[in-house]
């Protein structure tokens, strides 16, 4: 891949999982000009408001430019020695499991890989988890149950080729705007194409919807179990595909029939008009080319994994998977949640799509890394990890590129846990975050525009993120700081990386190591890529095995899955409501999510007034009937309280909110605004399978301030 001019760099956006290609050039004054890359297959030149403002976020104000120990600036050698010595002492006194890493979908794959290798292979702790746990862990678990691997079968092109796109729990217009633009453009070109939005809220995504189903929180399993039955009972079944390539249909049908025998029962479960449910079912039955896109409204639930499987069941029944214009499609929130999954950076994963449940895999990874202390069992998932910090079971934590004091549910518990923790290290590119305030050591990280490595987007496409300029001050890439700790702990050879290309090659080799095709993730074709070609690497989709063309776009269309018998699995699922029901004391259900122009806890998007102008303050969206019931005035202040905590926000009354529910954005922080952290209010209940928290359903009460 040739650079079009010396000063134009082809890179990828720092924000969401669409993974748009960006053409960027430094303006010589600390900023950059930015445009969409017309050649990148994710966006073909498009950018959304956040991506197009990337150049405005590069200023040095607020940057962390040197390590900090106990509040005073320090050099890298002193900081690294201090961290390595504390880790060594804590491991010696309490065992390696007393150390945890909490990492992020904002890390590049190379950072992620070294973090995973260092903690699980050499320090020997099980407790590495990522903020991607909050974003897509239910999809990972659902994919593994159905396909035998964590694999998204389709491509973005399928969303354009479909005759029917069903968006479930996804405000694509705000959260994945370029994908939304692609669907909107396809729909304009083909007016017969239909879009259905399944979401308790009427969002901007509904602007292109032919049908909006504002279902009750947590009732998705009922809706898709009902669809499974309808398709089956009306003969919309790919019998050949089901018989040859799947198992488990009868149990899935029995479970569906028990709770939702007909459309009327589904409508009751979901709080929807039966006619609207019937219309969705008829459209799906008619549309061979159906894609079901799902996101946080599905994943962030105590039944998230079951919701994912209820959706996949309908695609297995109809054989609508892995072929143009059809399939279940999980869209990830962060730019590199997928890369994290690939290196194994979830506490229940090992490495390169290998898990702890396979002793052969554990032995394989141990031999490949020549790891002296390989962890051999799953560690604590995010909620339990911070609980274990709170109880003192975990005595040291290294937080990288994320802000859990704001973004975790029951955020007050997370703050108290970090306050009580013996040793907290935070790597970030900004100095002042709610989490950084609780750190004993701050390490200055390279930021977007300085980082060099790869990311993977929601369609399994690996793209390069390239630097526009050197990192300022003493800021360094996360992989470098991790490698330096590895060396100081006595593992110089294992962490002898001279650049991201070295790490990428090792990651690719591990993906192909003793991989006979049974493991989904394999990028062996680039296992020996020299640094010069790594620099110019074109975006490509995995798997790309050694000797293959690399052009395979879709998976499972041939009916060959990654289970031991190569058959896909129907999973029998039963609808259940959210864990915590509304009560007399807490009569409303709080849903949380994102605004169009903000990203996570605003450490980057909060730096540009243009983006902040979209929604300058966080608003609690309340239906007018509920506002009248609880004495709230439009634009007045509301006190929001749950069993877990409280926050204050300005009220926005809107008929787009389902009565009995309220909505609040997750971005605002204790540092940036007195409005406080909405996650103080949010319950920490998690899906028992995926460990993903139920961020969309917390019983609350509201009152005027
Ligand atoms: Fe960036 Fe996502 Fe917007 Fe693309 S859609 S420009 S990846 S935020």
TrEMBL record:
Q: Keywords assigned by UniProt?
A: 4Fe-4S, Iron, Iron-sulfur, Metal-binding, Molybdenum, Nitrate assimilation, Oxidoreductase
Q: Name one GO cellular component term.
A: membrane
Cite the GO molecular-function annotations of the record. Answer: 4 iron, 4 sulfur cluster binding; metal ion binding; molybdopterin cofactor binding; oxidoreductase activity
Q: Where is the 4Fe-4S Mo/W bis-MGD-type domain?
A: 6-62
In the record, biological process GO terms are: cellular respiration; nitrate assimilation
Q: Which cofactor does it need?
A: Mo-bis(molybdopterin guanine dinucleotide); [4Fe-4S] cluster
Record keyword Oxidoreductase present: yes
Please report which protein family the annotation says this sequence is part of.
Belongs to the prokaryotic molybdopterin-containing oxidoreductase family. NasA/NapA/NarB subfamily.
This one is known as Nitrate reductase
Task: Name its species.
Answer: Vineibacter terrae
Q: Which residues of the full protein are shown?
A: 6 to 710 of 894
